[in-house]
Amino acid sequence: MNKIASTSALAFIILMGFVSMFSDMTHEGASSILGAYLSLLGASAATIGFVSGLGELAGYSLRLFTGYLADKTKNYWSLTLLGYIVDVFAVPLLALVPENGWIYACALIILERSGKAIKKPAKDTLLSFAASQVGAGKSFALQEALDQLGAFLGPVLLFAALMLKKGAVPVTEYRLCFALLFIPAVLTIALLLFAWRKFPNPENFEAPAQTKTPFKISAPFLWYIVATCVFAFGFLDFNMITMHISKEQLVGPDYLPLLYAAAMFTDAVAAVIFGWLYDKYGLKVLILSTLVAAPFSILIFNFTNLYVVMAGILLWGVGMGAQESVFKAAVTSIVPKETRSSGFGISQTAFGICWFLGSWALGWLYDQNLNAMVLASTVTQLLSLPCFYLAAQKFTGTNSQK
Fold this sequence. Notes:
- By secondary structure, this protein is mainly alpha-helical.
- The chain is built from 16 helices and no strands.
């Protein structure tokens, strides 16, 4: 019976991974050119940093409510579907933004992030149920690998489209790209509806808790939240990176999607590695991933050699991979089943608020003093190390007492 349940759970994780793959083809494909697109529409670096951060704030802060709502209603599938519809269809609408209409583009970015907020706690909770059969680290690593395969294919698709339209006005080229992303958006929803029909009750994968207790923030969970918040403040959004590379003319605008594709490929590989390490060593693996990723801003913003900048982009991908897989696995391990959506909502809201504040502050620093921005980004990420260590120690101590 356990083997059957494990096989079925793995099939569900893979199927939802393909949903994520097409979803990420849509919005991560857009992210590969979004910074440059906003710049062409008239947005400043500070505006791009602010909007990127505000989008993340909307995409994360609303999860406090949607996570609670998912726990109270148990309508995991309905919230997941609604969120995906808003998320993926906001992207093709960017093709309709008029010249100098950066305000409209910013509104669509925030709408897309809001859709992600609606779906995320419910979707992650559905996956956490299946993860109980397979292993939290491995499950979210596999999910992230497929997710990032889409994040790799999306920019590559746009690169091919840009090559075919080479010579056109850049704004026109980018509009074509956004319109093209309607295709994976439709495939996302179609596959999600199939998954819902195939697995209507994923909560059955995980046995119910013996006792039902109200949600509370434990010491390990508190230190985990503090650690991820400090890390988020210093971790730049990729829109800032593409804006800088475009501004410095390190590569032609047609090649920006390939840079993002490289970051997403690294993200996928890092997710698998750190997800596997998480199941063996726990939260301590975040110390290693943070140490590896922290110097990315130095390499990207302090050098003009393309190979050095690429090395920085790959390190950024490592940080994203660990964040997307291990962060979710940690919440699955720390928070009980009945209140896990609230756990995802609280931790992701705190993360998003700090990412918003960090993106805004670092975007402002970019306009004032580039070296100060790089220093702030690097030091802040490193300050998360003792917090991750304390979270790991508290979690180990709590488990040993059970």
